[in-house]
Amino acid sequence: MAALTTSRIEELILYSNHLTDSSCPHLASGIRNNQTLRTLNLSKNNLEGPHFTDLMAALTTSRIEELQLPYNRLTDSSCPQLASGIRNNQTLRTLNMCGNNLEGPHFRDLMAALTTSRIEELQLDNTHLTDSSCPHLASGIRNNQTLRILDLSWNNLKGPHFSDLMAALTTSRIEKLQLYSNYLADSSCFHLASGIRNNQTLRILNLSNNSLEGPHFRDLMAALTTSRIEELQV
């Protein structure tokens, strides 16, 4: 990591290296003010812990554009540190958090920080999110100017607060939304319809592996006629 600071490396892959929280200060020293590194892949390690904050603090002064953190055993308690890393960050465009467990009260911190970040692609698939996360997701995407791709696949977003997420979708700039395998039912179709009706940016919507059969499915199809969607997967 000390040598990284003077190298010209643009992509560093440390996938599945048994790195733990104790490695975070060293990772931080490597990326802090590094002028060339653009992609950092830390997938399938175990970075959860008190020193994760060091890595996130260094992220704010790095030039990293893509950060991969899938399957790092990160929990809701990591969300405030993640929030500090992306808040007002000028370079980060892609953040992959899939396969962690982010459900909890601090998830809202991450979503609040999203509103001032420059992130264009956020992957939150298989992060144990439930309906109670939908208001926080809504606050994160509402009027966000940069987010274009949001992956929420393999969560469980069915419930009364799903309507909050769909209401926020109408004013977001999202172009691709993945809701694959979210236990959505026919009762969700009314909210989905309100989300896509007259939406000006959404082009791709994936609703595969849900259970949308029922009388309200027609609401979704009716809204499709006035949306800008080019690809719908059901």
UniProtKB/TrEMBL annotation:
Under SMART domains, the record lists: LRR_RI (SM00368)
The organism that produces this protein has a lineage beginning with:
Eukaryota, Metazoa, Chordata, Craniata, Vertebrata
Q: Which InterPro entries match?
A: Leu-rich_rpt, LRR_dom_sf, RanGap
Q: What protein does this entry describe?
A: Uncharacterized protein
Question: What organism does the UniProt record list as the source?
Answer: Staurois parvus
